[in-house]
Specification:
The complex is a heterodimer of chains A (501) and B (405). Chain A is mainly α and 501 residues long. Chain A is built from 25 helices and 4 strands. In chain A, a hairpin with a 2-residue loop joins strand 3 (263-265) and strand 4. The radius of gyration of chain A is 25 Å and the shape is elongated. In chain B, a hairpin with a 5-residue loop joins strand 3 (83-84) and strand 4 (90-91). Chain B has 2 domains: 3-18 and 32-183 and 238-392, Alkaline Phosphatase, subunit A; 188-229, no CATH class. Chain B is built from 12 helices and 12 strands. Chain B is α/β, with parallel strands linked by helices. In chain B, the strands form 2 sheets. In chain B, strands 1, 5, 6, 7, 8, 9, 10, 11 and 12 form a 9-stranded mixed β-sheet that branches. Chain B has a 3-stranded antiparallel β-sheet with strand order 2-4-3. The chains are: A mainly alpha (501), B alpha/beta (405).
């Protein structure tokens, strides 16, 4: 079969023929296929609307949350999630302060640089994703942590804890402008992107460029190389207090390092000789209110919540809400969730590794214990999505093609094996299953883990697989039931059904 | 030591253990090699590697002055001075392992080269360069992906193109068989015996649909199967090569392993991160450059005569500003240097017109005198035997080749 005919074939099967033909094709037939022309969509029997919503706005669907949605109705559920402080999360908070006390340490204590501290933030972040009841808030924390990416290394490893506590979390569901201002005053950010070295004696464009390109306007947002230089001038002296200061590790504006003179940014002259910190502040204001920023942020949010390729119509609509509301994040999210494009977008986003990990924990109901995330962390390293360990300032990407490939899929399968083994070490999961036959166990596990039906062919395949471990149509002995439950759970979590969000 | 003696010395030592088992290799420089047996290894220095710190134009009379405290010492007897290449350019002594390969004429350097686009964005510049174009357009494939698809080598291996990374590089995207192979060690499903086979069989069924994800699953299972039947485990490092203990060293060793296993790999991509040196460039290069040079030299040595059929290219999205910023670093720039490595190329020379440091480009950058695609085109045509350049580099009218190979 030539490359071209396969290509046409691939597109055609997407619509109607898929299941008929493909079930008979062998695994070795994948040569000269065209991934670039295939749509990123699951092709599965549809799941419920409640499932689709939860799957998109949380770190993994659970029975408990599905019941809540069904009890309150979708709109009320969304409203509650948009107002995270209205949701009681005290149980998680208590666990966090017991397991990860470093999160609450003042700067002075963090600066003692106990080597065990930076990883506490990574583990706590995974804990929150898995166990917080404020799921949408955690999703937004993840979104903004990547948008304002900081790589934990050396001193930023410690100061990122402050950034998480005082920049990202307080503003994740607030106004974009406040978030931007907080980030520009964040010691971890200024160190990570070298603005502490940006002085009148010698500029450093690193932060200024990424502020324009990655944090606000976007690379096509209409700025020039000269704008980058001028923004860098405005931000000279924005630095972190050093060892001699009583405010060591905190943001400080050093006016002696500030470059004098008039600056011009995006056509606007900026000059506050009597209060030069205002020059940087004015830049942030211009950027926060710029229509290119509204569009750039809206596009990223749509990519996170709708699909890898959201329509321009939707992006423009969300951008207009951004402008109307002064960039109030809950309003942007509500507008996305209320759009028809969102409602029709089921199964178009791939779970990224971090989302996969939290979903595993939530689906399998693995109970929190201190070393849990540490145990899973190795897999997250292989899958290349350890929180706050993205070296490049663009943060982890959010498109399917960045996370699915031959090697990544094998890693995902192995991750499912790891997660299920972990659950069984904690608790023999088969005791939670009431069924005692292979078919019964398959159906019950599908309900518990997937919340959506298997196709008949896949169901038969899995039942046939289970017969390797126990006889069919018989009541299973405890040991057989345990073995079958373990194997089928692994298979379901590694299956195509589980890879979508 | 003269060039000739260096060359003789290397060719006898490098292939000592191999020479008896190898067929006589006598390929003239101008020969077009059989593409099926040739492998192109593309190393991308992510972040914008500073070309002037790798290969310094010490003969440019503005060099010392414009580079300030980042200027390297002109060639002399001392250890920290540049290694002279041609009386004008000098190799950073941190790249010393590359010197003997250059002297053997198996390493060519192109300077003042890169992407003809004024973007100073890492992400835009990388995307454009890997797509093989200079302006944004709707192309969603990469130049290597299109190359693999156009060379009609009857090669049905899923490892026709290999990404040594956790994700597929843009350059490899296309309609051909490319696999991500992050690590050849323990590749596959982490189960044993019957369980492993049962899972593989069941996955083959669950992932049998012709959807995007289904096809990825089939590719994954194929890749397991093909690696299992290869002689990957018979690999040994030869010719006393020593790979650096780094992720780059491991990547290069595993690429050598794949080549020696006779897996029909026609292109491989490797990334090295961390070249975005806005501060303390000098000290950061002390780690980055030896790693690069040792990894390349070990690979060259390990493969020995097999380097006849292997070409390595080292490139980056842009160079950096000529003048240091206030923190011993360099902000984003334009032109940089590119390396080509392989036996029987016309190495031992620094190619490209030198724009001169008196005439800087844009905000103070090195101008580009050679489009990077000129170099890649020449390699594709002369080393890989591929003439479908209009597919690989659309809208690029090929200028005269530099004569690198």
């Amino acid at each position: 079969m030539s490359a071209l005919s396969r290509r046409e074939f691939g597109v055609a099967t997407l619509t109607t023929l898929a299941l008929l033909f493909s079930r008979t094709s062998s695994a070795s037939s994948s040569s000269t296929i065209s991934f670039t022309t295939l749509s990123i969509v699951a092709n599965l029997d549809p799941a419920s609307d409640e499932f689709n919503l939860l799957n998109r706005i949380s770190f993994g669907v659970t029975d408990q949350e599905l019941n809540t949605i069904r009890a309150t109705g979708t709109s009320a559920y969304i409203e509650q999630q948009l107002d995270p402080l209205s949701i009681d999360d005290s149980q998680l908070d208590a666990t966090l302060s017991e397991y990860f006390p470093a999160l609450a340490l003042p700067i002075s204590k963090l600066l003692k640089r106990d080597k065990k501290i930076p990883s506490q933030l990574r583990y706590a972040t995974a804990f929150r994703a898995a166990y917080s009841r404020r799921q949408l808030n955690e999703v937004m924390v993840d979104f903004w942590s990547n948008h304002f990416n900081i790589y934990q290394q050396g001193l930023t490893g410690f100061l990122k804890i402050i950034d998480d506590r005082e920049v990202i979390r307080p503003h994740a569901m607030g106004y974009f402008k406040d978030l931007l201002f907080a980030s520009a005053h964040s010691p971890a950010m200024l160190l990570y992107l070298d603005n502490h070295k940006n002085t009148k004696q010698g500029g450093n464009e690193n932060y200024a460029r990424e502020l324009l390109e990655l944090h606000t306007l976007g690379v096509d947002g209409g700025y020039t190389q000269e704008d980058v230089i001028q923004v860098a001038y405005c931000l000279t002296g924005w630095t972190v207090a050093g060892k001699k200061s009583t405010h060591q590790g905190e943001f400080v504006f050093n006016s002696r390092r500030h470059k004098k003179g008039v600056k011009t940014v995006l056509g606007e002259a900026i000059h506050f000789p009597d209060d030069p910190i205002k020059e940087g502040e004015r830049v942030l204001e211009i950027l926060a209110n710029h229509p290119a920023t509204a569009r750039f942020i809206s596009k990223k949010l749509c990519r996170r919540f709708v699909s890898d390729t959201p329509s321009n119509t939707l992006i423009e609509h969300i951008a207009s809400v951004f402008i109307q509301t002064g960039g109030y994040i809950p309003d942007l999210l509500r507008a996305i969730f209320n759009s028809s494009e969102f409602r029709q977008s089921a199964d178009q986003k791939i779970r990224r590794p971090f989302e996969l990990m939290s979903s595993f924990i939530r689906s399998l109901q693995i109970s929190p214990y201190k070393n849990l995330i540490q145990k899973m962390n190795g897999m997250l390293t292989i899958l290349d999505q350890v929180p706050f360990r993205r070296l490049s300032p663009d943060g982890y990407p959010d498109k399917a093609e960045d996370w699915i490939n031959s090697n990544a899929l094998i890693n995902r399968w192995n991750f499912a094996i790891t997660a299920v083994n972990l659950k069984f070490k904690q608790k023999n999961m088969s005791r939670l299953i009431s069924a005692n036959t292979i078919e019964g166990i398959v159906d019950e596990l599908v309900d518990r883990l997937l919340f959506r039906p298997l196709s008949n062919v896949d169901r038969e395949t899995i039942i046939a697989f289970a017969q390797n471990y126990a006889p069919q149509n018989k009541t299973l002995k405890a040991k057989q039931k345990r073995n079958v439950t373990l194997r089928i759970s692994t298979l379901l979590l590694a299956s195509p059904y589980y890879q979508w969000r | 030591m003269t060039k000739m003696t260096r060359r003789t010395f290397l060719s006898t030592t490098a292939s000592a253990g191999l020479i008896s088992s190898l067929p006589q290799v006598a390929i003239a420089n101008t020969n077009i090699l059989n593409n099926i047996n040739h492998t192109l290894v593309c190393i991308f220095l992510r972040g914008g590697a500073d070309g002037l710190h790798m290969v310094a134009p010490y003969g440019d009379r503005y060099y010392a002055n414009k580079r300030g405290n980042l200027a390297l010492n002109p060639p002399s007897q001392s250890n920290d001075s540049l290694i002279d290449l041609d009386g004008f350019f000098g190799l950073n002594p941190l790249l010393t392992p590359l010197d003997s390969i250059f002297q053997t004429n198996d390493l060519a350097i192109v300077h003042a080269t890169g992407l003809n686009n004024d973007s100073h964005s890492h992400f835009d510049a990388q995307a454009l360069m890997e797509a093989g174009v200079t302006q944004k357009n709707k192309i969603n494939t990469g130049w290597l992906g299109r190359y693999l698809n156009s060379n009609q080598s009857q090669n049905s291996s899923v490892f026709k193109g290999v990404s040594k990374s956790s994700r597929l590089q843009t350059a490899l995207k296309g309609e051909s068989q490319v696999s991500v192979l992050n690590d050849t060690d323990n590749y596959g499903i982490k189960l044993s015996g019957k369980n492993k086979n049962r899972f593989e069989t069941t996955f083959a069924s669950l992932y049998s649909s012709s959807s995007w994800l289904g096809l990825q699953g089939q590719l994954a299972l194929d890749s397991i199967k093909q690696l299992k039947t290869s002689n990957l485990n018979q690999y040994s490092v030869e010719n006393n090569a020593i790979y650096p203990q780094s992720s780059f060293g491991k990547d290069m060793m595993q690429i050598a392993q794949l080549i020696k296993s006779e897996i029909p790999m026609e292109a491989a991509c490797v990334d090295i991160n961390g070249w975005d040196m806005h501060t303390n460039l000098s000290s950061r290069m002390k780690i980055a450059l030896p790693d690069l040079a040792k990894g390349l030299a070990a690979f060259y040595q390990d493969l020995g005569e097999k380097m006849q059929k292997v070409t390595v290219v080292v490139m980056t999205e842009f160079g950096r500003r000529i003048q240091p910023n206030g923190s011993g670093g360099l902000d984003h720039g334009h032109g940089s240097a590119l390396f080509v490595l392989g036996k029987n190329i016309n190495g031992g020379r620094v190619y490209g017109d030198w724009p001169g440091l008196d005439q800087l480009y844009g905000p103070g950058d090195l101008a580009i005198s050679t489009d990077y695609r000129t170099v890649l085109s020449e390699i594709l045509v002369k080393r890989m035997g591929n003439a479908a350049l209009e597919t690989v580099f659309p809208k690029f009218s090929i200028p005269d080749f530099l004569g690198i190979c």
